[in-house]
Design a protein that fits this description.
single chain, alpha/beta, Rossmann fold, 349 residues
Length: 349
C-alpha cells in the first residue's frame, strides 16, 4: 500500500506501508513521498540531531568515518522512509523552515510559510527525504543536510528562538524533556544521581537538580570520563562527580554509597547513550526511590526484571521525551544561566 493523501489520519497512519495497522513510529516502513495531505506540514530540512544512543551506535559501527556514517544514515532513511535506527529503535529530531501548510491546517496553527522550527517528535516516526548531506558533526550528533520532512497534524514543534544560535537550540530541544522531567521529580532535600551527568542532557539535569534540591540536598554526577567530571566540578552544579563506569553496577553502587553514607539516591536520572546501565541505576537507588530512564539505550525488560531480581521496590519511569512546555522551559535555562549558555555555545556553535 502506498501513501494516499485522500484519507489522512491526524496521527499519520495513512503513511504506514508496513506492517498495516500500526502507527508510524512502530512501523517498519512509512511513505516519505513529499506530496502532503491537507493536515500535514512540509518542512525544508537544514539539520538533523540524531538521538545520542543511535548516533553512538552508528559511529561505532562506522569506526568514526564520516563517509560511512553518512552511508548508514542514508541507508536507514532510504529503507524505512524515516530516520529510525533498527538497532537502537530511536531517532532524533530536526530543524528547518516551513515550506507548505496543508489546507486543513492553514489559519488554525501559529505557523506561516518560512517560519524556522524544530520538530519535537522523533525522527523515528517522521517522513524524511535526504537530498544531500552537507556536513557531519561527529562529536555533536548533528548532520547538516538539504532535504524535506513531513510533520503530522498531531506533531509537536517549536519555533526557533532568535536569541539562541540554531545549532545550540537544536541540541537543547532534542533533550528538552530531561530537565523538564527533572524539575517535576526532584524535591528540596533530595539526593539525586545523574548518570551521564557530563553529557548534553545530563548537564541540563544536574543544573536543574542543583536548583531544586536546595542547600540540604545533594547532587551527584556520574561519568566514566575524567574531563566530564572535571567540568561538572568546575561549574559547581554537583556536590560530587564520580568517575565510574555505570555498566559496572556494583562499582557504581559502592561509589554512591560512599558519598551518601549508605543512604543512596532518592532520584536517579539516567542520561547515558550506551547499554547495560540499568542495574547500576537500580543499585544506586534507595528503596522507595525513583529512576527516570531518559536514555534510549535502556532495556526496560532488563530494568524491570533486574529490580525484581535484587529485591528493589522502586518506581521506574519511562523516559518520555515530552513534558508540557518542555521546549520553552529548557531554552529558558540558557537565558537564566550565562555559564550554561557559554558551555553549550562552546560545544555546539
Amino acid at each position: 500500500m502506498q501513501f494516499s493523501p485522500s484519507a489522512p489520519s491526524p496521527f499519520g497512519i495513512h503513511r504506514v506501508i508496513e506492517p498495516q495497522g500500526v502507527l508510524p513510529q512502530g512501523a517498519w516502513k512509512i511513505s516519505n513521498a513529499m506530496e502532503i495531505a491537507d493536515n500535514e506540514i512540509l518542512i525544508d530540512v537544514s539539520a538533523l540531531n540524531i538521538d545520542s544512543a543511535s548516533f553512538t551506535q552508528i559511529k561505532k559501527e562506522a569506526g568514526g568515518d564520516p563517509a560511512r556514517i553518512e552511508a548508514a544514515v542514508r541507508g536507514i532513511v532510504e529503507q524505512r522512509g524515516k530516520m529510525h535506527n533498527p538497532v537502537t529503535g530511536s531517532g532524533g529530531m530536526l530543524i528547518g523552515s516551513v515550506a507548505q501548510i496543508g489546507a486543513a491546517l492553514a489559519g488554525k496553527i501559529d505557523l506561516q510559510v518560512g517560519d524556522k522550527i524544530a520538530t519535537l517528535v522523533s525522527l523515528s516516526l517522521t517522513p524524511l527525504r535526504i537530498d544531500a548531506v552537507k556536513k557531519i558533526h561527529v562529536e555533536k550528533d548533528q548532520i547538516e543536510i538539504s532535504g524535506r520532512a513531513v510533520l503530522f497534524e498531531t506533531g509537536l514543534y517549536a519555533k526557533l528562538p532568535t536569541d539562541i544560535p540554531e545549532n545550540v537550540a537544536l541540541a537543547i530541544l532534542d533533550v528538552a524533556g530531561a530537565p523538564a522531567q527533572t524539575a517535576r521529580l526532584v524535591q528540596a532535600g533530595d539526593t539525586v544521581v545523574v548518570i551521564g551527568g557530563g553529557g548534553k542532557s545530563g548537564t541540563l539535569c544536574v543544573y536543574e537538580a542543583k536548583k531544586r534540591v536546595g542547600p540540604n540536598g545533594l547532587v551527584i554526577g556520574v561519568s566514566p570520563f575524567a574531563k566530564d567530571c572535571e567540568r561538572m566540578r568546575e561549574h559547581g552544579w554537583v556536590d560530587h562527580a564520580l568517575q565510574v563506569d555505570a555498566t559496572n553496577a556494583v562499582a557504581l553502587m559502592e561509589a554512591v554509597s560512599a558519598v551518601t553514607g549508605g543512604r543512596m539516591a532518592d532520584v536517579v536520572i539516567n542520561c547515558v547513550n550506551i547499554q547495560n546501565t540499568e542495574m547500576g541505576s537500580i543499585l544506586a537507588t534507595r528503596d522507595g526511590g525513583k529512576i527516570y530512564f531518559f536514555s534510549m539505550a535502556t532495556s526496560f525488560t532488563a530494568a524491570a526484571l533486574g529490580a525484581e531480581g535484587v529485591g528493589k521496590d522502586i518506581e521506574m519511569i519511562v523516559g518520555n521525551g515530552y513534558a508540557k512546555g518542555h521546549a520553552a522551559f529548557s531554552l529558558a535555562l540558557l537565558r537564566e544561566s550565562p555559564r550554561l549558555r557559554q558551555l553549550f555555545e562552546e560545544l555546539y556553535v
